[in-house]
Amino acid sequence: MNKRARTSGPEARTTIVASAVLKLSVDYEQSQELPIGKAVYSDTVTVGQDNLWRVECFLRGEKVADGGKYISVFLRHMGESTSVMPVFEVCLMDRSGRPSMRQRKTTLRDCETMADDGNGRTWGWTQFIAATLAERNYTTADGHITFVCSIMVIDDSSTPVPPSDIGAHLGQLLDHAEGTDVSFIVEGQMFHAHRAVLAARSSVFRAELFGSMSEATMPSITLQDIAPATFEVMLRYMYTDALPSDNMPGACPINTLQHLLAAADRYALDRLKIICAHKLWEEVSIETATTILACAETYNCAELKSKCIDFIVLGKNLKEVIFTESYGSLLVKFPSVAAELREKLHDRIYAYGNGIGATED
Fold first, then answer.
1. Which CATH architecture has domain 17-154?
2. Which CATH class is domain 166-283?
3. Nearest C-alpha neighbor of 235 from the set 276, 195, 198
4. pLDDT > 70: what percent of the chain?
5. DSSP secondary-structure letter at 324?
6. For the whole model, what pTM was predicted?
7. Which of 43, 148, 150, 256 has the fewest CB atoms in 10 Å of its CB?
8. Average pLDDT, integer, range 25-43
């Protein structure tokens, strides 16, 4: 039995929306007086709904580099649609007036070029046939060379690919607690989860749940130093790759974001950490700048830290920031950050004094 015998499969169908056949005859001797790169055009024809087309023949070739050694043939789309897909087939009439199957090309099989020069898209061949071969075999007694061109427009419409819904499905898996095999106790609250999902998302959880640590065999794990609300948001993120769209739980959004950033750092959730850093930057103000700066320093968020420092030394901001409660704590807890603030401020004052683009209000 032939193992490669064709088996039954899904039905496939291609729909030809419209088609046209046109014949373009050109006086070959006169065409040799044209410069290289100058085309002879067919009439414009309508194929498909509001789709205009024309055939362009360069009897001395389209490219100067070819030195007039080849005939070039192209189909140009004159319409505005960018999704239309043609099948362009060209053959030459032989000396007896019959289409030559030996000199026949189709864009389905051997399209040499497809381009858009700003005046519409083109399909075709820069070197359709050698000029000497065309003159010898396809020029009729009256000196004409004839191109038979078939244009077919294929229905290229397709069902759009919907956005990924794996996050929604995994979120439902979390909500329904189907197949859970581990639970976490956070300040007395229990959260059920799937070891495989957590291990896939976090290298820290992978080491805890599948490594040599004691948690690997424990059905229930108690977590310290994380609030239930924070763990709940982090857990859902690990399943859905998204944060809640409504207001995040917690008395203060900034506090919640800081706690979530700390959790992301603890469990090596790098994308979540960056998301939290971006959201914290959106909350930076005179009142919050030093608190967020301290968080950035604690959890090694270099970009957020740099932005906070720039904000604090900008204009009159520092004069107001130093009177906030958190500024004193920052100086005591992070003396290196205080040194960076002084250095940045010194640089700005120096730049201002030398007129290097800095401005002071």
1. Sandwich (2.60)
2. alpha beta
3. 198
4. 86
5. S
6. 0.59
7. 43
8. 93
